[in-house]
Amino acid sequence: MSFSLSRCSRFESIKKVSKRALATILVPQCACCRQAHQSPERLCAACLSSLRANVCPGSMRLSNDPVVSRSNFGRYRIANTQKIAGVTHLQSAFFYRDVVPDLLIRWKYDGMVELTDLLASWVTDYCQLSHSYDLVTIIPCHWRRRFNRGFDHVWLLANTLAKTGLIEPPIRTLKHSKPLPFLHLQAASDRHIDPNHFRTVHPVKGKRVLVIDDVVTSGATLKAAAAALQQAGAEEVNALTVATAREPLLPASRTWI
Ligand SMILES: [Zn+2]
């Protein structure tokens, strides 16, 4: 019974991908808000503008220090929750707000895998990718979720980023011990993952590891991943995400861009 349900779900997923691809080819439609538009870009002008307004400042990408500075914005303090245990550097291209969550939902849940190239180009533009990492890996989908969805969006992203030549091709290194709950449906304070949730299936001893994921919210997933990698002997764990919900505390009147 569960197998037939999985097959049905997988068929629905493939159908969704095909339908979305066909619709966007036939009608110039914004990949995010789905409004018809004339722009040659995949996103309409309004969504592009919202996206650009949510680019994460460079100063947040390279340090876990609670106080960072950026000349254009003065000094501001990052909430202590910005720190993720075990993660040396976290960099993200966007803040997880306004149009960004919608875009990631289209990519991840609506089967718009064609957004991968677009997201990879933004991550390349707004983050600092380098060969200084010995090993690149991802927070993987649990195999059951990947089977039902038909793809692992973060794996696609990591491979697309590797094609730029700026980072090494990813290696599947982390395995889930069980499916993760849908954390985005939980309050941040309730998001907890067993520190033994992940296990490693590839040697990481003495390596500087870069872990790629779509979005960091509470940091619980990255924290558990870092724990597994460090337990296996990784020298350093860094993280790269498309978006971050971990924002600094700013004066209310301050505008970002
Ligand atoms: Zn739009």
Question: Any key phrases for this structure?
Answer:
257 residues; alpha/beta; four-stranded parallel beta sheet; three-stranded antiparallel beta sheet; 7 helices; 9 strands; 18% strand; disordered C terminus; binds zinc ion
Query: In order across it, which strands form the biggest sheet?
Result: 3-8-7-4
Low-confidence stretches: 61-81, 249-257
DSSP, total strands: 9
Major β-sheet annotation? 4 strands, parallel
Shape: globular
Quote the distance from N terminus to C terminus: 52 Å
Mean pLDDT: 79
Structural Rg: 19 Å
Query: Are any ligands bound, and if so which?
Result: zinc ion
Structural domains: how many = 1
| Approximate helicity band | 25-40%
Q: Tell me the series of helices and strands, N- to C-terminal.
A: HHEEEHHEHHEEEHEE
Q: Which structural class matches the secondary elements?
A: alpha/beta
What share of residues are in beta strands?
Answer: 15-25%
Number of helices: 7
